[in-house]
Amino acid sequence: MNRRKNIENLREGYHIFKNTYLPQHKELFSKLYQQNQNPSVLVISCSDSRVEPSIIMQCSPGEIFVIRNVANIVPPYEKDGNYHGTSAALEFGVTALNIAHILILGHRKCGGIEKLMTTKYRNNNSMAFLEKWMSIFEDVKREVENDGISMSIEEKILLCEERGIVKSIQNLHTFPWIKERVMQQKLFIHGWLFDIATGEMLEYKADTNRFTAL
């Protein structure tokens, strides 16, 4: 793969945007600039380059507030002196933008989940940050190993992709300002799982604890 060509493609893409897309949506961008952003949905998506929330859900600029990280993980609430990028973005979206919906958008073939469920990258000093980040889901891994004792590793990864979304939903409720708004029915939480190969989307149903077709 020609990596120099990749950045050249981005330059070309920008000029297409500037000369074609922008003039066609000049009024929208003028409005977005003049007014504060006012999205109603916050999406927590994986950093995976194959999963682009705005394309998958056909959103225009300004419609969704997006947080991206490896494996679309929501860490538990921790009030300490460390750096918390995902938590900071959540705080801004919920308390400053008054988001009405939070959507955890997971996907099949997730490299982070594969890393968690296999020995890939394990004890690799060059992947220390990744290993620490994925440890948030260690209890999910143990749960999958126990419940899927007769499953193949491929089946366990599929199950873990689903259970990871559920865990992130549970972790959202550990944030006091999220829990309060959910109880007041001012904030609603959703979990979706996108299949890159087929384009199908599954939705988590809390009442049945299952994922069903959207």
Automatic annotation (TrEMBL):
Pfam family, one: Pro_CA
Cited SMART domains: Pro_CA
Keyword ATP-binding assigned: no
Name of the protein this chain belongs to: Carbonic anhydrase
Cofactors required: Zn(2+)
A Gene Ontology molecular function term of the record: carbonate dehydratase activity
Organism annotation: Candidatus Fokinia solitaria
Single GO BP term: carbon utilization
Signal sequence range: none
Ranges annotated as spanning the membrane: none
EC number: 4.2.1.1
Keywords assigned by UniProt, alphabetized: Lyase, Metal-binding, Zinc
Catalytic activity: hydrogencarbonate + H(+) = CO2 + H2O
